[in-house]
């Protein structure tokens, strides 16, 4: 880990921290919630050893990158704008893009807005979701899963932050990283996160040191920056109306675990495997479903994910 360099640059009005290692063509890694550049630690080391320059920022709102207070500052335009500015600062015309969870959502938007800056995309966990012109996203999720669905519970500023504070940051990371339940994630308002069953012992792929790294950063920054991505979902829906129906036209590989909650959202499997995904993402070349693997796929199966990325991007 000591070979990884840490740098801070100014981009799009925010100070952004990124970790980097290696030299060669650039792979840009985008993390999810509640995560950091650190989620890509294994891939940074593996892929830099294969001749790539690996760059993993703390996205806006996370870690050592600035965290504007208002959710209005967390639209996909802000986040993609930060990343385009980062590439400009690095002097890089185009990159291989790799995203997971919210990082995957941002990567899909990046490819819509600036396909000229992307050589190829490997996205993990979250498949492309075409904009539904008739229903705002939070409204649609509330109709599907009810008020206790985690995305609905994340909407009220301060509410879930208080819940996390009472639970404790380390326990939250233990709960999230060890979860293997693909059913919808519900947070009952009465009991909150404290009502969740105690997490099992840590699996072999995550250490107490890893938990401490995440917890120490989030104890310092809080969770509001990351939660603001969820609070900007309906605003994104309003602002992206001009891109309704636009196809993603970069080469794509998609990887998901069969225990990932995102894979079990009603209609997602049918969309991925039934032709809808390929219609919206015509240069989709590979879909990989990893058996017995849950949501934090790049940490749970680090070597396999690194090889999946390498085997795809080396073609371009």
Describe the protein's architecture and organization.
The chain is globular. It is of the alpha/beta class and 316 residues long. Helix 1 (41-48) crosses helix 14, helix 2 packs across helix 3 and helix 7 (169-178) crosses helix 8. It has 14 helices and eight strands.
Largest sheet: 8 strands, mixed
Radius of gyration: 18 Å
Helix proportion: 25-40%
- Please list the strands of the largest sheet in the order they lie side by side: 1-2-4-3-5-6-7-8
- Tertiary shape: globular
Q: Please report which band the strand proportion falls in: under 5%, 5-15%, 15-25%, 25-35%, 35-45% or over 45%.
A: 15-25%
The overall pLDDT average reads 98
**Secondary structure tally: strands:** 8
Q: What is the H-and-E element order?
A: EEEHEHEHEHHHHHHHEHHEHH
Q: Structural class, from helix and strand content?
A: alpha/beta
Low-confidence stretches: none
How far apart are the first and last residues' alpha carbons, in Å? 28 Å
Short summary:
By secondary structure, the chain is α/β, with parallel strands linked by helices.
Helices and strands, with pairings:
Layout (H helix, E strand, L loop, with lengths): L4 E7 L2 E8 L3 E6 L10 H8 L3 E6 L18 H15 L4 E6 L1 H12 L4 E7 L12 H9 L4 H4 L5 H9 L1 H10 L29 H14 L2 H8 L1 H7 L12 E6 L10 H6 L2 H5 L3 E7 L6 H4 L1 H12 L3
Parallel strand pairs: 3-4, 3-5, 5-6, 6-7, 7-8
Antiparallel strand pairs: 1-2, 2-4
């Amino acid at each position: 880990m000591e070979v990884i360099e840490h740098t801070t640059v100014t981009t799009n009005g925010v100070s952004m921290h990124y970790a980097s290692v290696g030299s060669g063509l650039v792979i840009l890694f985008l993390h999810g919630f509640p995560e950091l550049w650190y989620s890509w630690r294994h891939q940074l080391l593996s892929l830099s050893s294969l001749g790539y320059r690996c760059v993993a920022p703390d996205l806006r709102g996370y870690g050592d990158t600035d965290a504007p207070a208002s959710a209005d500052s967390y639209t996909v335009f802000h986040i993609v704008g930060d990343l385009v500015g980062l590439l400009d600062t690095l002097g890089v015309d185009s990159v291989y893009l790799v995203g997971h969870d919210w990082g995957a959502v941002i990567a899909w938007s990046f490819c819509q807005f600036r396909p000229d800056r992307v050589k190829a995309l490997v996205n993990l966990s979250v498949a492309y979701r075409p904009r539904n012109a008739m229903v705002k996203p939070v409204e649609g999720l509330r109709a599907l899963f009810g008020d206790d669905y985690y995305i609905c519970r994340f909407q009220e500023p301060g509410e879930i932050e208080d819940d996390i504070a009472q639970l404790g940051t380390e326990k939250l990371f233990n709960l999230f990283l060890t979860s293997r339940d693909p059913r919808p994630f519900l947070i009952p308002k009465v009991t909150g996160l404290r009502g969740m069953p105690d997490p099992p012992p840590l699996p072999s792929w995550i250490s107490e040191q890893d938990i401490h790294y995440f917890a120490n950063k989030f104890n310092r920054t809080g969770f509001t920056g990351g939660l603001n991505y969820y609070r900007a979902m309906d605003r994104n829906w309003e602002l992206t109306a001009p891109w309704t129906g636009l196809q993603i036209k970069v080469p794509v590989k998609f990887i998901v675990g069969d225990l990932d909650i995102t894979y079990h959202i009603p209609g997602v499997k049918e969309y991925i495997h039934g032709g809808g995904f390929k219609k919206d993402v015509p240069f989709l070349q590979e879909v990989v479903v990893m058996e017995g693997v849950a949501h934090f796929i790049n940490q749970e199966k680090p070597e396999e994910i690194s090889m999946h990325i390498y085997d795809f991007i080396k073609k371009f």
